Amino acid sequence: MPNLGLIVEPSTTPAACRCADRALMALALERGYGALRVSRVAGDVLALGRYHVTPAGAPDVVLARRLSGGRAAASGTGFVTVSLALPHRSALVSDDPFALAPEQVLNRALRGILGGLDAAGIAAVYPGRDVVTVARRMLAVVGFEVDGAGATLIDAVLAMERDQSVLPRLLDRADPGGVVGAAMLLPDDVTSVARELGRVPGFDEVVAWLRRGYESRLGVRFVAEAVPRAENAGAEPGVRSRTLRPDLDRHGVIATMLGRFEAHCAVAADGTLAEVVLAGDLLAPSVTIERLERAFRGCPPVVERLQEVIDEVVRPPHDFILGVGPLRTVAETIVRAVG
Given the DSSP bridges, would you call strands 62-65 and 79-86 parallel, antiparallel or unpaired? Predict the structure, then answer.
């Protein structure tokens, strides 16, 4: 039976959440077991995925950047955030870090959340990709990150009183330039815990559901813990970390199963790639994306040559990119940007 620390934060901030999640990943790697953190933040929050371009922002919208990839989400008042830090991506089921394929990680890790919701009378499912749904209506946005040492973070923005139909209005206010792509979500496309239950549960009640779900579905044993101190918090890129420079003046975009995938490029005088920034709704280890972006420098913008670079850098089982379809999509998007 694996241990998990349990950290409950009824009130915190997006910046503190990010620091806590990074600290919990490091701690999980150090001690060999992870932690579940359940938290709330106040206000209107636009929670960007790790790879979204930073929008302009607005005085009345808090911009947050999750450590995980995946689509942008509404967060803040009316939502609960759940973070699960693990020493490696398969830690809930095996001592072998690669026992789970990348596409299996969310399926296993979210079983505790699904179990907790089921105990509360909500028939939620994980249909794949980066969402949890009820009767095909989006209830939570999820994602995960694997760092260079293998430490893994799975997170979920769970709709409580409000739901993800708030997202388009947040983007209208905080992203007038439209740099963050998102589908238009209508009330019938989404749901919330309050809508499903006909009442608003208390925060402590939600924590109890989640604890029971992980105990019953995954056989974990919880130990109450405090938020760990975040060492070198300033070393982790923040919300403005993917603000584009003017020289990245070539842009290609393609629709994918998660939303959209983008490439922002600068071209050198000899026609090769001077810089590439990959962006949008994707799930991938941050170290994989960083190495890939560096490896593209000096490469001709030709699909076959770019594919050679991708094959050299993205090497399973350590490396993966989910949500874009065939990896050739990455090369084709860069060519589209330059062309």
Answer: unpaired
Residue 309 has pLDDT above 80, yes or no: yes
Give the span between the Cα atoms of 132 and 178, in whole angstroms.
25
Place of tokens 């060492």: 231
Contact predicate 305/281, CB 8 Å: no
In terms of DSSP bridges, do strands 152-159 and 273-280 run parallel, antiparallel, or are they unpaired?
unpaired
CATH 1.10.10.60 holds for 250-338: no
Rounded mean pLDDT, 5-23: 95
Q: Are 85 and 195 in contact (CB under 8 A)?
A: no
**Domain range annotation of the chain:** 3-235, 250-338
Distance of CA 337 to the CA centre of its chain: 25
- pTM for the model: 0.94
Residue among 136, 133, 163 nearest 73 (CA): 163
With tokens 């959440």, the residue in question is 17
Neighbour-count burial for 106-118, b at 16+ CB within 10 Å, e otherwise: bebbbbbbbbbbb
Give the Cα separation of 79 and 105 in Å (integer). Answer: 23
Report how far residue 13's alpha carbon sits from residue 238's, in angstroms, rounded to the nearest whole number: 13
Superfamily of domain 3-235: Bira Bifunctional Protein; Domain 2 (3.30.930.10)
Query: Which tokens hold the place of 27?
Result: 């701690």
Q: What is the pLDDT of residue 242?
A: 87
